Amino acid sequence: MEKQWLEGLRNTVERVLTIPYYQERFGAIGINQAEDVKSLRDFQRIPLTTKEDLRKNYPFGLFAEPMENIVRLHASSGTTGKPTVVGYTLNDIKLWAKIVASELERAGVTKQDVVQIAYGYGLFTGGMGLHYGCEELGAVVVPISGGNTARQLMLMRDFGTTVLACTPSYALYLAESLEESGISRDELKLKIGIFGAEPWTEGMREQIEARLGIKAFDIYGLSETMGPGVALECPAHQGLHIDEHFYPEILDAEGNPLPVGEQGELVLTSLDKEAFPVLRYRTKDLTTLHYGTCSCGNVGWTMERVTARVDDMLIIRGVNVFPSQVEEAILSLGEFEPHYLLVVYRVGSLDQLEVQVEVDETSFFDEVRELEGRQERLQRRIEEILGISVRIRLVEPKSIPRSEGKAVRVVDKR
Ligand code: DLL
Fold first, then answer.
1. Distance 184 CA to ligand 1 centre (A)
2. Atom 1, ligand 1: which residue's CA is nearest?
3. Domain closes at, from 283, 310, 337
4. Structure confidence at residue 78 (pLDDT)
5. For labelling alongside 1, which of 96, 168, 341, 382 has CA 20 to 30 A away?
Protein backbone atom coordinates (compact mmCIF):
# COMPACT_ATOMS: atom_id res chain seq x y z
CA MET A 1 0.00 0.00 0.00
CA GLU A 2 2.83 2.35 0.91
CA LYS A 3 4.11 2.15 -2.67
CA GLN A 4 0.69 2.97 -4.06
CA TRP A 5 0.18 5.86 -1.64
CA LEU A 6 3.60 7.28 -2.45
CA GLU A 7 2.78 7.27 -6.13
CA GLY A 8 -0.38 9.31 -5.48
CA LEU A 9 1.36 11.62 -3.04
CA ARG A 10 4.20 12.30 -5.51
CA ASN A 11 1.54 13.12 -8.08
CA THR A 12 0.24 15.89 -5.86
CA VAL A 13 3.74 17.06 -4.91
CA GLU A 14 4.52 17.40 -8.61
CA ARG A 15 1.35 19.38 -9.18
CA VAL A 16 1.82 21.79 -6.32
CA LEU A 17 5.46 22.36 -7.31
CA THR A 18 4.14 24.29 -10.32
CA ILE A 19 2.92 26.92 -7.81
CA PRO A 20 5.51 29.52 -6.66
CA TYR A 21 4.24 29.55 -3.04
CA TYR A 22 4.92 25.83 -2.64
CA GLN A 23 8.19 25.92 -4.63
CA GLU A 24 9.59 28.34 -2.11
CA ARG A 25 8.40 26.44 0.97
CA PHE A 26 9.49 23.03 -0.28
CA GLY A 27 12.81 24.31 -1.63
CA ALA A 28 13.70 25.32 1.91
CA ILE A 29 13.57 21.67 3.02
CA GLY A 30 15.29 20.31 -0.10
CA ILE A 31 12.22 19.08 -1.97
CA ASN A 32 12.49 20.48 -5.48
CA GLN A 33 10.86 17.69 -7.43
CA ALA A 34 8.43 14.84 -6.75
CA GLU A 35 11.28 12.26 -6.80
CA ASP A 36 12.75 13.89 -3.70
CA VAL A 37 9.88 12.30 -1.75
CA LYS A 38 11.27 8.77 -1.47
CA SER A 39 9.27 7.48 1.48
CA LEU A 40 6.28 8.29 3.67
CA ARG A 41 8.79 9.62 6.16
CA ASP A 42 10.03 12.14 3.56
CA PHE A 43 6.40 13.02 2.91
CA GLN A 44 5.90 13.79 6.58
CA ARG A 45 8.67 16.41 6.38
CA ILE A 46 6.57 18.47 4.00
CA PRO A 47 5.17 21.58 5.72
CA LEU A 48 1.48 21.42 6.63
CA THR A 49 -0.94 23.59 4.70
CA THR A 50 -3.37 25.71 6.71
CA LYS A 51 -6.37 27.90 6.05
CA GLU A 52 -3.98 30.80 6.60
CA ASP A 53 -1.93 29.70 3.55
CA LEU A 54 -5.14 29.70 1.51
CA ARG A 55 -6.07 33.17 2.77
CA LYS A 56 -2.61 34.54 1.96
CA ASN A 57 -3.06 33.39 -1.61
CA TYR A 58 -6.64 34.62 -1.99
CA PRO A 59 -8.35 34.14 -4.35
CA PHE A 60 -6.59 31.97 -6.96
CA GLY A 61 -2.94 31.89 -5.89
CA LEU A 62 -2.87 28.16 -5.09
CA PHE A 63 -4.56 26.98 -8.27
CA ALA A 64 -2.42 24.53 -10.21
CA GLU A 65 -4.23 25.15 -13.52
CA PRO A 66 -4.66 28.32 -15.59
CA MET A 67 -8.09 29.95 -15.29
CA GLU A 68 -9.02 28.81 -18.80
CA ASN A 69 -9.07 25.22 -17.46
CA ILE A 70 -11.19 26.05 -14.41
CA VAL A 71 -14.93 25.41 -14.81
CA ARG A 72 -16.28 26.03 -11.29
CA LEU A 73 -15.50 27.92 -8.11
CA HIS A 74 -16.79 27.23 -4.60
CA ALA A 75 -15.93 29.05 -1.40
CA SER A 76 -16.08 28.42 2.31
CA SER A 77 -18.69 30.21 4.32
CA GLY A 78 -15.98 31.78 6.56
CA THR A 79 -17.69 34.24 8.87
CA THR A 80 -14.58 36.30 9.43
CA GLY A 81 -12.32 37.78 6.77
CA LYS A 82 -11.98 36.49 3.26
CA PRO A 83 -13.49 33.14 2.30
CA THR A 84 -11.28 30.35 1.05
CA VAL A 85 -11.81 29.79 -2.63
CA VAL A 86 -11.49 26.45 -4.38
CA GLY A 87 -11.43 25.76 -8.13
CA TYR A 88 -12.31 22.69 -10.19
CA THR A 89 -11.41 21.54 -13.68
CA LEU A 90 -13.98 19.52 -15.61
CA ASN A 91 -12.05 16.37 -14.63
CA ASP A 92 -12.27 17.41 -10.97
CA ILE A 93 -16.03 17.83 -11.24
CA LYS A 94 -16.33 14.41 -12.89
CA LEU A 95 -14.13 12.78 -10.27
CA TRP A 96 -16.10 14.41 -7.45
CA ALA A 97 -19.36 13.10 -8.93
CA LYS A 98 -17.88 9.59 -9.23
CA ILE A 99 -16.62 9.62 -5.66
CA VAL A 100 -19.96 10.78 -4.23
CA ALA A 101 -21.88 8.31 -6.43
CA SER A 102 -19.82 5.32 -5.32
CA GLU A 103 -20.12 6.29 -1.68
CA LEU A 104 -23.88 6.77 -1.89
CA GLU A 105 -24.09 3.37 -3.55
CA ARG A 106 -22.23 1.86 -0.63
CA ALA A 107 -24.77 3.45 1.73
CA GLY A 108 -27.55 1.74 -0.22
CA VAL A 109 -28.74 4.55 -2.53
CA THR A 110 -29.68 3.28 -6.02
CA LYS A 111 -30.89 4.71 -9.31
CA GLN A 112 -34.44 3.89 -8.17
CA ASP A 113 -34.18 6.49 -5.41
CA VAL A 114 -35.58 10.02 -5.31
CA VAL A 115 -33.07 12.19 -3.47
CA GLN A 116 -34.21 15.45 -1.93
CA ILE A 117 -31.14 17.63 -1.60
CA ALA A 118 -31.81 20.10 1.19
CA TYR A 119 -28.19 21.17 1.60
CA GLY A 120 -27.67 24.75 0.48
CA TYR A 121 -26.86 25.30 -3.20
CA GLY A 122 -24.38 28.01 -4.15
CA LEU A 123 -20.83 28.66 -3.08
CA PHE A 124 -21.30 26.05 -0.31
CA THR A 125 -20.31 22.65 -1.71
CA GLY A 126 -23.11 20.64 -0.03
CA GLY A 127 -25.92 21.09 -2.56
CA MET A 128 -24.01 20.77 -5.80
CA GLY A 129 -21.65 18.10 -4.47
CA LEU A 130 -24.53 15.76 -3.64
CA HIS A 131 -26.38 16.83 -6.77
CA TYR A 132 -23.73 15.73 -9.26
CA GLY A 133 -23.07 12.54 -7.29
CA CYS A 134 -26.74 11.53 -7.38
CA GLU A 135 -27.00 12.27 -11.10
CA GLU A 136 -23.88 10.18 -11.74
CA LEU A 137 -25.59 7.35 -9.86
CA GLY A 138 -28.74 7.80 -11.93
CA ALA A 139 -31.03 8.66 -9.01
CA VAL A 140 -33.76 11.30 -9.35
CA VAL A 141 -32.53 14.58 -7.92
CA VAL A 142 -34.85 17.08 -6.24
CA PRO A 143 -32.60 20.17 -5.98
CA ILE A 144 -34.71 21.99 -3.42
CA SER A 145 -31.80 23.47 -1.39
CA GLY A 146 -32.24 24.41 2.30
CA GLY A 147 -35.20 26.16 3.94
CA ASN A 148 -38.89 26.50 3.14
CA THR A 149 -39.71 23.66 5.47
CA ALA A 150 -43.44 23.30 4.77
CA ARG A 151 -42.71 22.98 1.06
CA GLN A 152 -39.94 20.45 1.74
CA LEU A 153 -42.48 18.22 3.49
CA MET A 154 -45.15 18.61 0.84
CA LEU A 155 -42.75 17.71 -1.97
CA MET A 156 -41.27 14.90 0.10
CA ARG A 157 -44.72 13.33 0.12
CA ASP A 158 -45.80 14.28 -3.42
CA PHE A 159 -42.54 13.28 -5.15
CA GLY A 160 -42.11 10.10 -3.10
CA THR A 161 -38.70 11.14 -1.78
CA THR A 162 -36.77 8.11 -0.52
CA VAL A 163 -33.46 9.78 0.43
CA LEU A 164 -33.05 13.03 2.34
CA ALA A 165 -29.69 14.83 2.20
CA CYS A 166 -29.18 17.77 4.59
CA THR A 167 -27.47 18.71 7.85
CA PRO A 168 -28.50 16.60 10.85
CA SER A 169 -29.84 19.70 12.61
CA TYR A 170 -32.08 20.47 9.64
CA ALA A 171 -33.20 16.83 9.50
CA LEU A 172 -34.31 17.18 13.12
CA TYR A 173 -36.16 20.40 12.32
CA LEU A 174 -37.88 18.65 9.39
CA ALA A 175 -38.85 15.77 11.70
CA GLU A 176 -40.30 18.19 14.23
CA SER A 177 -42.19 20.09 11.51
CA LEU A 178 -43.52 16.82 10.09
CA GLU A 179 -45.01 15.96 13.47
CA GLU A 180 -46.87 19.30 13.43
CA SER A 181 -47.91 19.21 9.78
CA GLY A 182 -50.99 17.50 8.46
CA ILE A 183 -48.73 14.91 6.78
CA SER A 184 -48.37 11.54 8.47
CA ARG A 185 -45.13 9.53 8.37
CA ASP A 186 -47.00 6.76 6.54
CA GLU A 187 -47.55 9.03 3.56
CA LEU A 188 -43.77 9.32 3.07
CA LYS A 189 -41.44 6.85 1.38
CA LEU A 190 -38.34 8.13 3.14
CA LYS A 191 -35.80 5.43 4.07
CA ILE A 192 -32.27 6.89 4.05
CA GLY A 193 -30.71 10.11 5.34
CA ILE A 194 -27.30 11.42 4.20
CA PHE A 195 -26.38 13.84 6.95
CA GLY A 196 -23.22 15.82 7.55
CA ALA A 197 -21.49 19.22 7.31
CA GLU A 198 -21.56 19.62 11.11
CA PRO A 199 -20.72 17.50 14.17
CA TRP A 200 -23.50 15.30 15.56
CA THR A 201 -23.60 12.52 18.13
CA GLU A 202 -24.91 8.95 18.21
CA GLY A 203 -27.74 10.23 20.43
CA MET A 204 -28.74 12.67 17.71
CA ARG A 205 -28.64 9.85 15.15
CA GLU A 206 -31.05 7.80 17.27
CA GLN A 207 -33.42 10.76 17.59
CA ILE A 208 -33.48 11.46 13.86
CA GLU A 209 -33.79 7.79 12.88
CA ALA A 210 -36.69 7.25 15.28
CA ARG A 211 -38.56 10.42 14.38
CA LEU A 212 -38.18 10.12 10.61
CA GLY A 213 -38.21 6.32 10.50
CA ILE A 214 -35.02 6.12 8.40
CA LYS A 215 -31.43 4.89 8.48
CA ALA A 216 -29.06 7.83 8.88
CA PHE A 217 -25.55 7.92 7.35
CA ASP A 218 -22.78 10.32 8.32
CA ILE A 219 -21.10 12.07 5.38
CA TYR A 220 -17.93 14.12 5.83
CA GLY A 221 -16.05 16.58 3.68
CA LEU A 222 -14.79 20.12 3.46
CA SER A 223 -14.64 22.60 0.62
CA GLU A 224 -10.83 22.86 0.71
CA THR A 225 -10.43 19.19 -0.17
CA MET A 226 -13.39 18.98 -2.60
CA GLY A 227 -16.65 19.14 -0.62
CA PRO A 228 -18.92 16.35 0.65
CA GLY A 229 -17.65 12.88 -0.16
CA VAL A 230 -14.24 12.69 1.50
CA ALA A 231 -15.84 9.98 3.65
CA LEU A 232 -19.21 8.31 4.17
CA GLU A 233 -20.53 5.52 6.35
CA CYS A 234 -21.55 2.11 5.03
CA PRO A 235 -24.48 0.14 6.50
CA ALA A 236 -22.14 -1.42 9.09
CA HIS A 237 -21.84 2.03 10.73
CA GLN A 238 -18.34 1.23 12.01
CA GLY A 239 -16.82 4.51 10.93
CA LEU A 240 -16.75 6.55 7.75
CA HIS A 241 -14.90 5.03 4.79
CA ILE A 242 -12.35 7.51 3.49
CA ASP A 243 -12.37 7.64 -0.26
CA GLU A 244 -9.21 6.29 -1.88
CA HIS A 245 -8.52 9.60 -3.64
CA PHE A 246 -7.44 11.08 -0.29
CA TYR A 247 -4.54 10.24 1.97
CA PRO A 248 -5.29 10.84 5.67
CA GLU A 249 -2.99 11.47 8.62
CA ILE A 250 -3.68 12.23 12.28
CA LEU A 251 -1.50 14.77 14.08
CA ASP A 252 -1.22 15.92 17.65
CA ALA A 253 -1.61 19.57 18.65
CA GLU A 254 2.08 20.24 17.83
CA GLY A 255 1.71 18.76 14.36
CA ASN A 256 3.48 15.43 15.08
CA PRO A 257 2.07 12.26 13.47
CA LEU A 258 -0.01 10.04 15.77
CA PRO A 259 -0.36 6.29 15.30
CA VAL A 260 -3.52 4.70 13.93
CA GLY A 261 -6.17 4.46 16.65
CA GLU A 262 -5.29 7.69 18.45
CA GLN A 263 -7.43 10.79 18.40
CA GLY A 264 -6.05 13.98 16.90
CA GLU A 265 -6.44 16.45 14.06
CA LEU A 266 -7.22 15.06 10.64
CA VAL A 267 -4.82 16.13 7.88
CA LEU A 268 -5.70 15.36 4.27
CA THR A 269 -3.82 15.18 0.99
CA SER A 270 -5.67 14.92 -2.30
CA LEU A 271 -4.20 12.36 -4.69
CA ASP A 272 -5.81 13.19 -8.02
CA LYS A 273 -7.20 16.70 -7.89
CA GLU A 274 -6.08 18.96 -10.74
CA ALA A 275 -7.13 22.56 -10.14
CA PHE A 276 -6.74 22.78 -6.39
CA PRO A 277 -4.52 20.01 -5.04
CA VAL A 278 -4.11 20.08 -1.28
CA LEU A 279 -1.05 18.75 0.45
CA ARG A 280 -1.16 17.88 4.15
CA TYR A 281 -4.11 20.21 4.74
CA ARG A 282 -4.97 20.78 8.40
CA THR A 283 -8.73 20.25 8.64
CA LYS A 284 -8.92 21.25 12.33
CA ASP A 285 -11.34 18.35 12.73
CA LEU A 286 -10.80 15.90 15.58
CA THR A 287 -11.14 12.22 14.82
CA THR A 288 -9.44 8.82 15.00
CA LEU A 289 -8.21 6.81 12.00
CA HIS A 290 -8.32 3.06 11.48
CA TYR A 291 -7.02 0.91 8.66
CA GLY A 292 -8.36 -2.53 7.79
CA THR A 293 -11.24 -4.56 6.42
CA CYS A 294 -14.76 -3.47 7.32
CA SER A 295 -17.52 -6.04 7.77
CA CYS A 296 -19.01 -4.62 4.54
CA GLY A 297 -15.94 -6.02 2.74
CA ASN A 298 -14.29 -2.70 2.02
CA VAL A 299 -10.54 -2.49 2.67
CA GLY A 300 -8.97 0.85 3.51
CA TRP A 301 -9.00 3.81 5.85
CA THR A 302 -11.94 4.63 8.06
CA MET A 303 -12.38 7.58 10.37
CA GLU A 304 -14.54 7.79 13.46
CA ARG A 305 -17.24 10.45 13.44
CA VAL A 306 -15.80 13.95 13.80
CA THR A 307 -16.63 14.88 17.37
CA ALA A 308 -15.60 18.50 17.08
CA ARG A 309 -13.52 21.12 15.36
CA VAL A 310 -10.47 22.41 17.16
CA ASP A 311 -11.96 25.87 16.50
CA ASP A 312 -15.20 25.04 18.32
CA MET A 313 -13.41 24.23 21.52
CA LEU A 314 -14.41 26.51 24.37
CA ILE A 315 -11.99 27.04 27.17
CA ILE A 316 -13.97 27.55 30.38
CA ARG A 317 -11.87 28.20 33.46
CA GLY A 318 -8.99 26.38 31.83
CA VAL A 319 -11.03 23.31 30.85
CA ASN A 320 -11.61 22.33 27.21
CA VAL A 321 -15.29 21.99 26.38
CA PHE A 322 -16.83 20.81 23.12
CA PRO A 323 -20.52 21.36 22.30
CA SER A 324 -20.81 17.68 21.29
CA GLN A 325 -19.99 16.61 24.87
CA VAL A 326 -22.95 18.63 26.09
CA GLU A 327 -25.18 17.15 23.35
CA GLU A 328 -24.16 13.68 24.44
CA ALA A 329 -25.03 14.42 28.08
CA ILE A 330 -28.42 15.94 27.21
CA LEU A 331 -29.48 13.08 24.95
CA SER A 332 -28.17 10.35 27.25
CA LEU A 333 -30.75 11.27 29.90
CA GLY A 334 -33.73 10.99 27.53
CA GLU A 335 -35.57 13.72 29.44
CA PHE A 336 -35.01 16.68 27.14
CA GLU A 337 -35.65 17.78 23.61
CA PRO A 338 -32.55 17.63 21.37
CA HIS A 339 -32.42 21.42 21.11
CA TYR A 340 -29.78 23.22 23.11
CA LEU A 341 -27.54 26.26 23.17
CA LEU A 342 -24.32 26.98 25.06
CA VAL A 343 -24.03 30.53 26.35
CA VAL A 344 -20.63 31.59 27.64
CA TYR A 345 -20.29 34.76 29.69
CA ARG A 346 -18.06 36.28 32.28
CA VAL A 347 -18.79 37.22 35.87
CA GLY A 348 -15.92 39.36 37.12
CA SER A 349 -12.93 37.56 35.69
CA LEU A 350 -14.53 34.11 35.80
CA ASP A 351 -15.94 32.32 32.75
CA GLN A 352 -19.38 30.78 33.18
CA LEU A 353 -21.16 28.28 30.97
CA GLU A 354 -24.92 28.24 30.76
CA VAL A 355 -26.56 25.35 28.96
CA GLN A 356 -30.03 26.16 27.69
CA VAL A 357 -32.10 23.13 26.83
CA GLU A 358 -35.69 22.73 25.78
CA VAL A 359 -38.27 20.60 27.56
CA ASP A 360 -41.23 19.24 25.65
CA GLU A 361 -44.73 20.77 25.65
CA THR A 362 -46.21 18.45 28.25
CA SER A 363 -43.41 18.58 30.78
CA PHE A 364 -43.16 22.35 30.52
CA PHE A 365 -46.27 22.47 32.71
CA ASP A 366 -44.99 19.83 35.12
CA GLU A 367 -44.56 20.61 38.75
CA VAL A 368 -41.66 22.85 39.61
CA ARG A 369 -40.19 20.11 41.80
CA GLU A 370 -40.17 17.66 38.91
CA LEU A 371 -38.47 20.19 36.62
CA GLU A 372 -35.91 21.04 39.26
CA GLY A 373 -35.11 17.34 39.60
CA ARG A 374 -34.43 17.08 35.91
CA GLN A 375 -32.34 20.20 35.92
CA GLU A 376 -30.19 18.78 38.70
CA ARG A 377 -29.75 15.44 36.94
CA LEU A 378 -28.57 17.19 33.79
CA GLN A 379 -26.28 19.46 35.75
CA ARG A 380 -24.70 16.45 37.45
CA ARG A 381 -24.29 14.54 34.19
CA ILE A 382 -22.67 17.49 32.40
CA GLU A 383 -20.39 18.23 35.33
CA GLU A 384 -19.31 14.58 35.42
CA ILE A 385 -18.39 14.73 31.73
CA LEU A 386 -16.80 18.18 31.64
CA GLY A 387 -15.37 18.40 35.12
CA ILE A 388 -16.56 21.98 35.66
CA SER A 389 -19.71 23.44 37.16
CA VAL A 390 -22.30 24.71 34.71
CA ARG A 391 -25.64 26.48 34.95
CA ILE A 392 -28.64 24.77 33.38
CA ARG A 393 -31.59 26.75 32.12
CA LEU A 394 -34.65 24.83 30.99
CA VAL A 395 -36.35 26.82 28.27
CA GLU A 396 -39.75 26.74 26.61
CA PRO A 397 -40.43 24.37 23.77
CA LYS A 398 -39.33 25.81 20.39
CA SER A 399 -37.56 28.81 21.89
CA ILE A 400 -34.09 27.86 20.62
CA PRO A 401 -33.68 28.92 16.97
CA ARG A 402 -33.97 26.01 14.51
CA SER A 403 -31.34 25.52 11.82
CA GLU A 404 -31.81 25.13 8.08
CA GLY A 405 -28.08 24.61 7.50
CA LYS A 406 -25.23 24.33 9.96
CA ALA A 407 -26.53 24.78 13.51
CA VAL A 408 -25.15 27.50 15.77
CA ARG A 409 -24.55 25.84 19.15
CA VAL A 410 -22.59 28.52 21.00
CA VAL A 411 -23.19 32.16 21.89
CA ASP A 412 -20.02 33.61 23.35
CA LYS A 413 -20.71 36.81 25.24
CA ARG A 414 -17.24 37.22 26.69
O1 DLL B 1 -19.54 21.18 5.10
C2 DLL B 1 -18.96 19.99 3.08
C3 DLL B 1 -20.09 19.05 3.30
C4 DLL B 1 -21.33 19.29 2.75
C5 DLL B 1 -19.89 17.89 4.04
C6 DLL B 1 -22.37 18.40 2.92
C7 DLL B 1 -20.92 16.98 4.22
C8 DLL B 1 -22.15 17.25 3.66
P9 DLL B 1 -17.43 23.26 4.59
O10 DLL B 1 -18.56 24.23 4.60
O11 DLL B 1 -16.14 23.68 4.00
O12 DLL B 1 -17.82 21.96 3.81
O13 DLL B 1 -17.23 22.81 6.10
C14 DLL B 1 -16.32 21.81 6.40
O15 DLL B 1 -17.63 21.06 8.30
O16 DLL B 1 -14.09 20.81 8.37
C17 DLL B 1 -16.03 19.93 9.57
O18 DLL B 1 -15.64 20.79 10.62
C19 DLL B 1 -17.50 20.10 9.32
N20 DLL B 1 -18.08 18.82 8.87
C21 DLL B 1 -18.35 18.41 7.62
N22 DLL B 1 -18.91 17.18 7.62
C23 DLL B 1 -18.97 16.79 8.93
C24 DLL B 1 -19.42 15.61 9.59
C25 DLL B 1 -18.84 21.10 4.11
N26 DLL B 1 -19.97 14.61 8.95
C27 DLL B 1 -16.33 21.52 7.89
N28 DLL B 1 -19.27 15.58 10.95
C29 DLL B 1 -15.42 20.39 8.26
C30 DLL B 1 -18.74 16.61 11.63
C31 DLL B 1 -18.43 17.84 9.72
N32 DLL B 1 -18.32 17.74 11.05
1. 31
2. 197
3. 310
4. 66
5. 96
